[in-house]
Amino acid sequence: MRQGSMAQLVSWSSCAMGRVKTVIHPNGSDIGQDITDHAENGVRIDDILGQGKKSFEVTTAADLLKITPKPVDWIVEDLVAKGVKTVIGGMTGANKSYFVMEMAVRIACGIGEFMGHAIKKDYSVLYVNLEISNDEVNRRIQKIISNLHVTHEGLQNLHINVFDNETFDDVWEKIGNTVEKVKPQLLIVDNLYASTNVNLSRNDEIKKLLRRIDNVVTENDISLILVAHFNKSMGETELSLERMQGASSLQNWIEFGILLGRSSVNTEYRLMRIVKSRISNASHHHFLLQWSNDTHLFTKKGIVENPSVHFLPVNKLGQYKEALDEMDDRFDTMRFLNVVENQFNLTRRTGDRWIADLLTAGLIKKEKQGLFKKTDLEIIKDES
After folding, report:
1. Would the pTM of this model clear 0.70, i.e. be above it?
2. Which of 19, 90, 343, 370 has the highest CB neighbour count under 10 A?
3. What are the residues facing 290 on neighbouring strands?
4. Could you read off the pLDDT of 111-142 as tens digits, one per residue?
């Protein structure tokens, strides 16, 4: 029988045996590969099904039903889990570094919670920063520690390493060596972009990088939090995984994804959203956080009803508010465009874009063609 596609062979073999078999990728498989990829690389069907050379571990679906899955072992409830690759991404100015610094201190010292999420146990933490100076890291960490009133004893669990990586070399070998020396239970790397010299937009390059990261994690049996940037070219309009800097392989590799954004409504407001979870039914709401420049600490304020309001261009918020203040509860397109043209000396095309922004943000609703109504939502004045 001539070897056809792997999908056909697996289907034929499964039906012939009268049962479904699950095959597990062997070590060294590329991220995102499936059985057809192994067939194209010359792997025999007998090897895959375990009838020849034992390349794959094989079990039946019936046997799987006899196994009780282990419960998720949370480090920070509903945010960080043991053995899970967590990526925290976000916009410039969203305070991603402050976020993971505070989390690192709380986890290492066993402080009861982080923004209302219970910390289940104290863990030995290694925090690696690749972007800011040692002095600045020290200033930030010291202020966080001071405002959390942490004891000296608890700080023995927190290890800090600052690499000067101005040349953007790949530092994962150095990180791996540091992990072997310190032996943390949780590794936090801030950030992905500064940790390597590979082109993050190329799948072929990023797959090799992710394999090196996986090796550090698996060989040392540690949990990982990786900080990542958003693509600046995409603008700051929403919190979605597609905005993460990196090719599709990175998005597929992530097991738990948390995104942070800054609000244009208030300089201290941040938005947080869980966008991916392979381990739980996570809420995909946008949560409103408040970050204090005085304490360097985060607090959770609640769930945002309409996150689009927070992503309106900060330099236009005042103008949007002024234009809406000139409108009755119901207004037509011509009335709005006249205000934009006469009071702001802008074009009618700009006025059309403003209407589109206001509709997206939920500040107005379209009743019919050319007629709009204000909603109960308001542009909140920044009082910070």
Report:
1. yes
2. 90
3. 269, 299
4. 989 999 999 878 999 999 998 889 999 999 99
